[in-house]
Each structure stands twice: as C-alpha cells, then as structure tokens.
Design a protein that fits this description.
By secondary structure, the protein is of the alpha/beta class. The chain is built from 7 helices and 22 strands. Helix 1 runs parallel beside helix 7. Bound molecules: flavin-adenine dinucleotide.
Length: 347
C-alpha cells in the first residue's frame, strides 16, 4: 500500500496555515501536521487591536473555527516548541524531547520583535503585543486615556499606534533608524512622513537614546503611570506602557547546524525552496532571491505572507510557481495627509 506523504509545518501563522489548507487541496491523502508554540489556534494578529473595541473573547479572533482543522484533517500541535531539525534523518526534535518524522518540511516560523542588547535585561517591563493575552493586558494597563511610549517605530508599531490614538490613548514614539521599518525611506523624505504621523495624533521624538526601563511601584498622585523610561541624557519619560518596535528578527534558532543557508532569514529561491531538497520556507522567516534586485529580500505583510504559504504548498506538491520578487511596497501619504502602508492591508 502506498504510504501517505507526511508534511510538517513549523508555524501556525498566516503563512503556515495557508500552506496547510493548500497542501490539503493538492494532496488529499497526505498527513499534515502543523507545530506551533502558540497555545491557541490561529488568531489574526492584525485583529488584536480589536481588544480596544471591547473584544474580550479570543474566539472572536479565530481565523478558522476549531472544526475546520478536524474537517480538513490538519493536526495542529499547539504549545509545542521545535528545538532543532535533524536533516539527516528528516526529523523534528521538540523541546520536550519527542521527535517527529517528515517527508517534506515547511518552515513558517515568522519573526519576533527585536530588542537591542542594552534593553534586553528590562524585557519584563516592556509590553509585547503578540498574543491575545498580552493585548488584553495592555488594554487593561491603559485605562481610559492611557499613555504608551513606543521605541523604534517600525510599521508593526505604527499600525498599533493608529489603533491606540483612535481609542483615545496618547502615543509618543522615541524614534531611531527603525522608524518606518521595513520601508526604506530616503533621509530627505522622512520629515513629510513624520508630519503625517503627527496628523494622526502620534508624537515623534528623535535623538534620545533609551538606556533603562523601570517599574514605578507607587505612582505619584493623580497619575497611573507604572513605567519610567530612562535616557542616556535628560529627563525620564513616564507612561502606562513601554513597547519595543525595532523591527522583526526571523525565528530560526532551531535551524542552526542544519546546513541550510541563512543570511538574516532562511534563504530560499523564488520557488521558496531552501538549499535543502526537502525543506521550503514561507512568511517572515525567509528571504527570497530576487534576480531583479540581485539580493535576497524579505516580504512582510498579510498578503505577501499568505501568498508565500500558497506558493510553497503548490511547489511542495510538485508545482513550479515563482514568487514575484521585486519590492513594490511603498509607504504613502493619503489625500487626508495620513500614512498608509501596504503592509497594513489584510483580508
Ligand atoms: C500585533 C501585530 C500586528 C501586526 N500587524 C502587522 C501589520 O499590520 N502589517 C504587517 O505587515 N505586519 C504586521 N505584523 C507582522 C506579521 O507578523 C507578519 O507580517 C505576518 O503575519 C507573519 O506571518 P508568518 O506566518 O510568517 O509568521 P507568524 O504569524 O509570526 O507565525 C509564526 C508561527 O511560528 C511559530 N513558531 C515560531 N518558532 C517556533 C518554534 N521554535 N517551534 C514551533 N513553532 C514556532 C509561532 O508559534 C507562530 O505560530 C504584525 C505583527 C504583530 C505581532
């Protein structure tokens, strides 16, 4: 009897989940297993700001209902960490010591927020915004008209900043060279984009280097600020929450030692295949070779990431589709004078 093909996917975000759906379409008899550190099924992170509109139940943010995975025979192993990949035996090694064999592997492990080394020891006092739980925690710490300090100012942060100001909160960005990341903005154009941010009610401050984040255990009278940002020079800044937005770093520690080529992300050809014959990659974790640009490019954002999941699944099942690899994502200023990024669009 012919053995069903075993597909393993690391990551249950937009890329991994789209790939799982497409693999099921292309290879109906296969065994598909998605492995994810997430405790919940796939939640649309672009929808996390809906907690500010009063969404209190994570089930409202599920992209697919729980029965979807059952109906499509897609096994999702939640709260499971891949610690390494054994490319000689085609096995995933999990942190809890179990192993899992694959015939073909898709790495769609996304990226995590980068925190500069000098601030890492203060991580406990920084607010992440990656899970439903920490989105609710942020909302609760802000109260009615809270104050958020953002560091860096990448496009993920700016997306959240516009939701926060719309919900009546105050946002100040202490910007550095990651402002507008991953858009590449010419020095001469920065002023007009900053003006657009200000038109959106977001304050931008340049030239101050944060060196520490402290907890305020007893807020002074009339304030609820629980965090203090300390700079190399000058007065500290108080806020309800301090959030790092210094760009994303691909999550690929588990790929170290596999022999698969890595620059900053996993390197793939336009067919999304890595340098290993049995491994593909999609989403924020990979950099795709662009013959037009003569370099490897990252492609962020919902539409790009979902497309990569689709293409990878097609090619893993014998197809030969190429990802369009020239960078076209431009930051724009709308007629109303506010910013719009194609990275913010999603369905
Ligand atoms: C709050 C928020 C808002 C955002 N808003 C925008 C936006 O408006 N526009 C935009 O362009 N981008 C936004 N992003 C960036 C966004 O993450 C991506 O562009 C896109 O969603 C990435 O999809 P992905 O499938 O590649 O990875 P992710 O969605 O990051 O999924 C990665 C998956 O890999 C799993 N994983 C990672 N490591 C392991 C491991 N060792 N073992 C097992 N599983 C692992 C994780 O559990 C997760 O399921 C936002 C991100 C956040 C956090």
């Amino acid at each position: 009897m012919k053995q069903s093909r075993r597909y393993a996917i690391i990551g249950s975000g937009a890329a991994g989940t789209e790939a799982a759906c497409q693999l099921r379409n292309h290879d109906p008899d296969s065994v598909i297993t998605v492995v994810t550190t997430s405790k919940l099924q796939f939640i649309d992170r672009y929808d996390l700001p809906r907690v500010f509109d009063g969404v209190d139940d994570w089930r409202e943010l599920l992209v697919h209902p729980p029965e979807f995975y059952h109906d499509n025979k897609i096994t999702v192993r939640r709260n499971t960490w891949v610690s390494s990949v054994n490319t000689r035996e085609n096995k995933l090694n999990f942190r809890h010591k179990e192993t899992m064999v694959y015939d073909k592997l898709l790495v769609a492990s996304g990226g995590g927020g980068h925190i500069p080394e000098g601030l890492r020891e203060f991580s406990a006092y920084l607010n992440p915004f990656t899970t439903f739980q920490n989105a609710v925690r942020l909302r609760d710490s802000l109260g009615k008209q809270g104050k958020v300090v953002m560091l860096g100012g990448d496009m993920v942060g700016l997306d959240l900043a516009r939701s926060l100001t719309a919900a009546g909160h105050q946002v100040t960005i202490f910007a550095n060279e990651t402002l507008f990341w991953p858009h590449e903005i010419k020095q001469a154009d920065i002023a007009q984009y900053v003006k657009a941010l200000e038109a959106m009610g977001i304050k931008v401050v340049f030239g101050r280097k944060p060196v520490a984040v402290e907890q305020i255990s007893r807020p002074s009278k009339g304030t609820s600020y629980s965090r203090r940002l300390v700079f190399e020079k000058g007065k500290p800044e108080l806020a309800n929450a301090i959030m790092p937005f210094y760009g994303l770093m691909p999550a690929l520690n588990f790929m170290m030692g596999t022999g698969v080529d890595i620059e900053r992300g996993l390197l793939v050809n336009p067919h999304l295949k890595t340098t290993n014959d049995k491994i593909w990659a999609a989403g924020d974790v990979c950099q795709i070779w662009s013959p037009e640009d003569n370099r490897y490019n990252f492609f962020y954002g919902w539409a790009n990431v979902k497309k990569m999941g689709l293409i990878a699944a097609h090619n893993m099942t014998g197809g030969s589709t190429e990802m369009k690899t020239s960078q076209t994502n431009k930051l724009k200023i709308t007629k109303n004078g506010v910013l719009h990024s194609p990275y913010w669009e999603h369905d």
